[in-house]
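Q: I'm building a small set of examples for a reading group on sequence design. Run inverse folding on the following structure and report the sequence directly after it, with nothing in between.
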């Protein structure tokens, strides 16, 4: 028989028991759906994470009092005090770093959280409240939609001016045609809106447009760091390395700060040099853990599904014993019988794989709509899902197909 004839025969055998075939493939469907949904969510997170970090730039260095590898939630009070005793970074440090050969630009920055902003009767808690030197917008990968950025005069004269994100405008000044030139209250101080940032959207539930930027000198005057965790509100420096000079910039900054702080060669750094790579490494560890969990769950589901496939194929062989004997009697070869039942098993699992792909894609889209987690289904995941499910059918179909092909035609014809 030709391959297409064997395939048609396999499909007819499955169509005769549709409900049983569907129930048999539930394990395959669940396993493939798990893989597809998790891959889609992780892929969506990957694309958006690289997009957000790419906007900042892979040549950006954050000079801070701590490194991003510190697990702040697990620090003891002693470790917190030791961290707080580290000398603060200064604007002078930023100027010294900016003069390094491998550095394009350096700006001093200070962040605060939980700051309330008001406009008339409307009130909003700002997600990101930044005091920064001129040039911060460009170094941070932000863009001005309307108005202007901060200037040297704003910094020098401690002007009460600000740049706001689109979310702040939507929440506070939704009835205002043009927010530029309007004043908002930050704490107990009035600030004039001089710039509007281009919209960036959300990242894992955090609104990137809920941001207000003021001059660093104004921040130091009116909003000094306070509280138990003020170490994490200390001044930091954002550095933009020259193109292709990332490693040189890191080395030069480390040598400069060690010299300025009088550290001996046997003393550890009392500052942190953080890069996008640290975030990516932490993110890869997180997603690799998700992938391992996904593989474990999917493997169990596929194993259960494969055993179910083998069991139902053995039942099918037993039910069709007379058919097998008749086909052998009229000239069917053993390898054709073997191939027919292998094809039935593979078609059964492949159909389950296709249904699992659609179910997994639907779950991922539902998660995308109902949660902050984005999703994106790559083509390779569909090919792997369907292909792997067909391989499961091949593996678990070998024994039933072998049983069918080894039957004695005479005994098969006598079977009742």
């Amino acid at each position: 028989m030709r391959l297409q004839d064997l395939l048609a025969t396999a499909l007819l055998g499955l169509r005769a028991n549709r409900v049983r075939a569907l129930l048999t493939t539930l394990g395959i469907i669940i396993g493939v759906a798990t893989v597809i949904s998790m891959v889609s969510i992780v892929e969506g997170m990957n694309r958006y994470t690289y997009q957000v970090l790419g906007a900042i730039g892979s040549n950006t260095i954050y000079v801070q009092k701590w490194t991003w590898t510190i697990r702040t939630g697990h620090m003891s009070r002693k470790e917190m005090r030791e961290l707080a005793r580290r000398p603060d970074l200064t604007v002078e440090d930023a100027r010294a770093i900016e003069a390094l050969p491998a550095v394009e630009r350096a700006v001093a920055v200070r962040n605060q959280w939980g700051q309330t902003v008001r406009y008339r009767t409307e009130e909003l808690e700002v997600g990101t409240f930044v005091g920064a030197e001129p040039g911060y917008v460009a170094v941070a990968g932000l863009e001005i939609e309307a108005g202007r950025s901060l200037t040297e005069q704003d910094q020098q004269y401690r002007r009460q001016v600000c740049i706001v994100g689109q979310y702040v405008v939507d929440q506070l000044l939704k009835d205002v045609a043009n927010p530029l030139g309007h004043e908002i209250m930050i704490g107990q101080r009035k600030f004039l809106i001089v710039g509007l940032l281009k919209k960036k959207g959300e990242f894992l539930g955090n609104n990137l447009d809920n941001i207000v930027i003021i001059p660093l000198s104004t921040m130091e005057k009116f909003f000094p760091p306070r509280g138990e965790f003020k170490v994490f509100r200390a001044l930091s420096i954002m550095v933009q390395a020259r193109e292709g000079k990332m490693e040189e910039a890191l080395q030069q900054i480390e040598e400069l700060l060690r010299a300025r702080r009088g550290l001996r060669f046997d003393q550890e750094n009392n500052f942190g040099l953080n890069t996008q790579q640290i975030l990516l490494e932490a993110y890869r560890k997180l997603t690799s853990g998700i992938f391992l969990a996904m593989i474990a769950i999917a493997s169990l589901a596929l194993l259960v599904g494969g055993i179910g496939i083998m069991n139902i194929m053995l039942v099918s062989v037993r039910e069709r014993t007379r058919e097998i004997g008749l086909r052998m009697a009229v000239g069917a070869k053993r390898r054709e019988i073997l191939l027919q039942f292998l094809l039935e098993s593979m078609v059964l699992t492949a159909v389950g794989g296709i249904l699992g792909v659609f179910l997994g894609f639907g779950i991922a889209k539902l998660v995308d709509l109902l949660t902050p987690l984005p999703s994106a289904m790559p083509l390779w995941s569909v090919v792997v899902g369907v292909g792997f499910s067909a391989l499961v059918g091949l593996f678990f179909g070998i024994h039933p197909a072998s049983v069918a092909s080894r039957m004695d035609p005479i005994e098969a014809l006598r079977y009742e």
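The mean pLDDT is 83.
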